[in-house]
Design a protein that fits this description.
By secondary structure, this protein is an alpha+beta fold. Helix content is 40%, strand content 40%. This is UPF0237 protein IV45_GL000730.
Length: 88
Amino acid sequence: MKAILTVVGQEKPGIVAHVSTFLADRNINILDISQTIMDDTFTMMMQVQLNENDDLQDLITQLRALGKKIGVDINLRNEELYRAMQQL
């Protein structure tokens, strides 16, 4: 399943490294990535390919914990759900 991962928080070194390492350790492929810094706020959006045996809720919980550890907000949504929300 494809999913959309978003990261928002205070700009600091290592955000991309932490998130991409988390994904690589779980064999989750990054299909597309976009990031920018607005003033001092870091924003990143990734399209990722989850493995068929990945538990979405478990990944969300782990990513939120990672975000708390590094001081950013991380969200993960099923791409189909994300796109449907954007159309409303």
